[in-house]
Specification:
globular, three-stranded antiparallel sheet, 12 strands
Length: about 425
């Protein structure tokens, strides 16, 4: 059994009991010796922290729990740092979702112009966190769940010296759903960027390709709880040549998505605010000592399985295969080595070693991935420099934006609305790379 010290930055997140539940399920291989819960929101940190203390006490776990708003204190002695921050809280998510719709764009927190602004707010804060990790616990692994996870992970890996792996619960949901249809021993090829990914091959135990058999049988890809499911046209999937992640509905069915956003009485952010308050009320009930079922409505299904199995694989050098966000390093031939991609990787004490993806000649996937990756790179540049030009270049090539005038007007209104959280644009506080 491996003893570990874990620091959670953004511990006021109502997802946090899900994470702790995952550690408790792995007590045979991981001993959570010390858990530091760091958050600048005292109310949420206290409520969620008390719930976590009860969970640990309920099963007799001998874990030291520390709650703090002091980042430097939180990082002392950390083996793993889990980041799940939301700069500007759910109010800024509401802005990300609401303002773009006024301009005829999809408002979403991880893609398009909404995803860009979440990245612009987040990267300066992540830069500070990484600078402190480098100074205080340089050997710690940063496990990043903060969205947009692919963009944030790309920034960290290319501009800091922190050992970082980006995570998302989308891949495991996609793979598990396909295995339910084909068999647990199916050999699945998965590739893409975070929230822009596909399964391009499904081999059964005898090596037979089953992808198009699934399409012919009317296979319906799973859709995350936080996304309105409009379904995928099977002819679309056959043309694409892959099973897409649910986030690709925003690309393949954008008109319906915009219509839903215009017609909805509440945005997803407003729904999440209600779910969060319901969870916080539950967490204050001292009789609640296990993760409540309502937490699954928040969209983090299997979040703890993904995070804790990855930490277990690193801590115990298991050399297991996990789908993660890491630098490409030749895994996908048509992507650059320094592109953060979402692929299968061998996970051990040295981190993630991406596995070569079986060759694909799918020009659709290649085209969409390379274009969106350039949007991500330009977004990182804008977040670091406060460059309007970099941001506008990103928006003009993103498939969900494109029109210059509309993009500029939407960008300017969102920049004004987010002024408090964009020091690189308004105060000239640029982010410097510390990469050696």
């Amino acid at each position: 059994m491996k003893d570990i010290n874990v620091t959670v930055i953004g511990s006021g997140s109502t997802y946090c009991p899900e994470l702790v539940d995952g550690f408790l399920k792995r007590r045979d291989s991981l001993r959570l010796k010390r858990l530091v819960l760091m958050d600048i929101d005292e109310r949420k940190r206290t409520i969620v922290g008390a719930m976590i203390v009860r969970m640990l006490k309920h099963v007799g776990a001998d874990t030291e729990v520390v709650m703090t708003d002091d980042l430097d204190a939180a990082l002392q002695g950390a083996d793993f740092v889990v980041t799940q921050i939301r700069v500007g809280k759910l109010h800024c998510r509401y802005l990300d979702e609401h303002i773009p719709v006024k301009f005829g764009y999809i408002g979403q927190e991880t893609t398009g112009i909404g995803g860009m602004f979440k990245a612009l707010r987040t990267i300066p804060v992540m830069a500070h966190i990484c600078e402190r990790i480098e100074a205080i616990c340089p050997d710690a692994f940063l496990i990043n769940f903060t969205n947009p996870s692919g963009i944030v992970t790309d920034f960290v890996l290319n501009n800091t010296n922190v050992k970082c792996i980006g995570l998302c619960n989308v891949p495991i949901d996609m793979v598990d759903t396909v295995k339910e249809a084909v068999g647990e021993d199916a050999d699945i090829t998965y590739l893409g960027l975070n929230h822009l990914s596909w399964i391009t091959s499904v081999l059964d135990k005898d090596g037979n390709e089953k992808l198009y058999d699934l399409f012919d049988a009317g296979y319906a890809p799973s859709v995350m709880a936080n996304i309105q499911d409009d379904g995928f046209d099977l002819n679309c999937l056959k043309a694409v040549g892959g099973i897409p992640s649910s986030y690709l509905q925003y690309y393949y069915d954008r008109d319906k998505k915009i219509d839903h956003l215009k017609e909805s009485l509440k945005s997803r952010a407003q729904v999440c605010m209600e779910i969060e308050e319901e969870l916080l009320r539950l967490y204050q009930d001292e009789s609640v000592v296990t993760k409540p079922a309502v937490l699954d409505q928040r969209g983090g299904h299997k979040y703890s399985l993904v995070a804790c199995s990855l930490i277990d694989a690193i801590a115990n050098d298991k050399q297991e295969v996990h789908i993660v966000n890491t630098l490409n390093q030749g895994a996908i031939p048509f992507m650059d080595d320094d592109d953060a991609v979402e692929v299968a990787a061998v996970i051990g004490k040295d981190g993630a070693k991406p596995l070569p993806v079986r060759p694909t000649w799918n020009r659709h996937i290649k085209g969409l991935m390379t274009v969106v990756k350039q949007y991500e790179k330009l977004t990182v540049e804008a977040a670091m420099t406060g460059s309007d030009a970099a941001a506008m270049n990103a928006l003009m090539i993103h498939p969900l934006c494109g029109d210059y005038e509309r993009s500029y007007n939407c960008f300017y209104e969102m920049k004004q609305a987010n002024m408090e959280y964009l020091p690189q644009f308004w105060l000239g506080k640029t982010v410097k790379s510390t990469k050696k």
